[in-house]
Amino acid sequence: MSIAATAPVLPQGPAAQAAKAAAKAPPKPSPEIVDAARKFEAIFVRQLLSSLEKTTQMGGEKGTQGSVYGSMVVSSMADSISAAGGLGLGELVAQAMMQAEKHT
Predict the structure, then answer these.
(1) How does residue 18 score in pLDDT terms, banded at 50, 70 and 90?
(2) Could you give the number of structural domains in the chain?
């Protein structure tokens, strides 16, 4: 007759589950990294939207006034998209920055 070795069964209460989840969770980026990643994403979105400005009549009229207004609209839209969570690019940039910071 053989006795199989088994691991002791410990209760998994909410505190134990929270501790286990915290141990698996990736570290939070610093506020400076989050801000830099958000700004990078805003610049990237601004570049994407600049083609929209060129192909549509966002300025309303042709000439200098229309192009200034159009670029202001693009800039505002890019900042709003980024501030609302963006495209998810900011999170990836922040993770990459944290990895680079770890290796320096």
Answers:
(1) low
(2) 1
